[in-house]
Design a protein that fits this description.
Low-confidence stretches: none
Order of helices and strands: HHEEHEHEHEEHEEE
Mean pLDDT: 96
CATH class: Alpha Beta
Strand order of the largest sheet: 5-4-3-6-7-8-9
Structural class: alpha/beta
CATH architecture: 3-Layer(aba) Sandwich
Number of domains: 1
CATH topology: Rossmann fold
Bound molecules: S-adenosylmethionine
Number of strands: 9
CATH superfamily: Vaccinia Virus protein VP39
Length: 218
């Protein structure tokens, strides 16, 4: 079976198991995950599991990417901040959902991974994704405010700069916690009031940086 067939099968399975919307299903079907995976793991690219990408980091499992996209309710034209680019896969799926009129600004802590992500994204023609090297726990003020924000590493708590950089009416999805982790959906209403919901238990690598886990080192 070739990559295209495997990807289609995985997207079908996720659609069935997660009751995916047509838009998220299409995005999962369109993005070639094997391009983002190191050579030795390409054979597993369409298994629904995280895989190593080097530097102690992982590419997220496809079901987690699909769930976070559904929870964010991504629309054409949205300006989105991603914290934790990794190899760029999740950003590519989000880029499909926000379309050419939308933008994804993605901050990655590890310069080598940011370079890898840039190469992967540009090879596939995702020119609506901007990868920045830095501490995404502080957000990315030059492009703020954002319609949607999501974080792909678990934080001790929701970083206040991210709350401030979210537009009124915006939504954030972020894993919080160290050993036990919970996926939090944070909504900011038009008056700026914050409401948080707990989606459930998840497993992510720890967030570094100023609002991350200071004890964790590379
Ligand atoms: N988005 C990725 C994907 O496409 O599968 C998954 C990324 S991986 C699970 C989490 C990433 O967050 C790692 O690449 C890690 O280096 C990055 N990270 C951790 N702390 C960070 C911080 N403070 N700022 C930016 N990136 C951070």
């Amino acid at each position: 079976m070739d990559y295209d067939e495997r990807r289609e099968r995985l997207a079908e399975r996720l659609r069935y198991e997660l009751n995916l919307s047509q838009r998220v299903y299409n995005a999962m079907k369109n993005v070639p995950r094997h391009i983002f995976v190191p050579e030795r793991y390409k054979i597993e690219a369409y298994s629904d599991t995280p895989l190593p990408i080097g530097f102690g980091q992982t590419i997220s499992a496809p079901h987690m990417v699909a769930i976070m996209c559904e929870l964010l309710d991504l629309r054409e034209g949205d300006k989105v901040l991603e914290v934790g680019t990794g190899c760029g896969y999740h950003a590519a799926v989000v880029a499909e959902l926000v379309g050419k009129s939308g933008r994804v600004i993605s901050v990655e802590y590890i310069p080598e991974l940011a370079e890898m992500a840039k190469a992967n994204l540009s090879a596939l023609g995702y020119d609506n994704v901007y990868v920045v090297v830095g501490d995404g726990s502080k957000g990315y003020p030059p492009e703020a405010p954002y319609d949607k924000i999501y974080v792909t590493a678990s934080a001790p708590d929701v970083p206040q700069p991210l709350v401030e950089q979210l537009k009124p009416g915006g939504r954030m999805v972020i894993p919080v916690g160290e050993h036990a982790q919970w996926l939090i959906i944070l909504e900011k209403d038009k008056k700026g009031n914050i409401r948080k919901k707990n989606w459930g238990s998840v497993r992510f690598v720890p967030l570094r940086g100023e609002y991350g886990f200071k004890s964790v080192r590379y």
